[in-house]
Amino acid sequence: MVKMIKAWEQFMPKARKELLMKYTEVPLETGVFMNGDLCRMLENELKRLFDVKNVFVTGSGTDAYELLLALFMNQTGREKLTVIAPLYSFISDWSVPESMGILTLICNNPIIPIDVHEVKPIRRLLSERDLVIVPAWMHGYYNEKVEGFVEGEFRADSVVNDFAHCLGSGRLNGDYGFVSFAPTKIVGSGKGGALLNNLGDCDLGALRDFGRDVNGQEKYKYGKNFKMSEFDAAVVLSGLPFLNEIVEKQKRVFEYYNKELEPFENEGVISCLDKRMKDWRRNYYQYCVILNGDLCGKRRLIEDRMLEEGVECWRKQNPQFHDRIFLPCHANLTEKDLEKVVDVFSKVIYEAIEGE
């Protein structure tokens, strides 16, 4: 049986498992399974990590984003809000109806997906609309050079940092931010997220919606309280002490791929995104290969063939990623695993080029 190299695995050394067992004893002893002592402990750890005034852990990263929009509108007294989201971000993905539903419900306005480097559309939109800009740094890259969003004619009402992919690569550079601890994140749990706020205290309880009747009739709106599980908090807390180690191990993976895939780059067959992003901070979360030329239309074929050969790639459904392959990148990969990934990728790429 062919050993499958997974696209992603959580880093779970013995020391982390022992720490996790210690943390899970807390809710078992207290009988508090939601929003308890471990959640408060995690909030304090995230305050230190991101150097922010306030952190509120939530049920998921999506919860954190939804709560952030509600908080922003509550604090500014607005009833409508336009969100400008850079392309390749979760919230600019038109194929995710959940995110569209959230934004439509709260903002009464569609998302306007744009590229962060397209200056003219930003200038035009800022002159016409009330908005919050969300710089969502993807694949683990975090750009601290956001002056274009917060100064001069590009001034927005607020700048939000999306750290869904970027835990360990940067600190909050703006008023708000949100984090995701989904299972596939660099430190993941079953669910979980966090809202970061650098402006001061706020009453999140007033924003929670536990459900209600509609117009006094027998129709009910489903509620949502955004609370995080103590067990999810335990998983994240057990992983944070190993964050730097995870980043260093995944940096080694990036360096290996950058070196071994260089011949394909020299032939113009592919481009390695990491080499384009040399000025950006990173946590080496996802290794992205951009397919050039005719290979763009063969992404699914390449992914399927690699899977047959025992190498699983990240399966991205976003239509923006039609030309991108995401190779396995996690802290558990061995030298032998990396050699196999490159060998299989090379074989499948040559097959695709020759049209087999």
β-sheet strand percentage: 5-15%
The total count of strands amounts to 14
Number of self-contained structural domains: 2
CATH fold name of the largest domain? Aspartate Aminotransferase, domain 2
How does the helix and strand content classify structurally?
Answer: alpha/beta
Low-confidence stretches: 92-110, 114-120, 146-155
Give the CA-CA distance, first to last residue.
25 Å
Strand order, largest beta sheet: 1-8-7-6
Characterize the largest beta sheet: strand count, sense, and whether it forms a barrel. Answer: 4 strands, mixed
What fraction, in percent, of the residue positions are helical?
A: 25-40%
Quaternary assembly: single chain
Supply Rg. 22 Å
What is the helix/strand order?
Answer: HHEHEHEHEEHEEEEEHHHEHEEHEH
| Overall geometric form | globular
CATH homologous superfamily placement of the largest domain: Type I PLP-dependent aspartate aminotransferase-like (Major domain)
Task: Assign the CATH class of the largest domain.
Answer: Alpha Beta
Instruction: Provide the CATH architecture of the largest domain.
Output: 3-Layer(aba) Sandwich
Average pLDDT number: 78
Q: So how many helices? A: 12
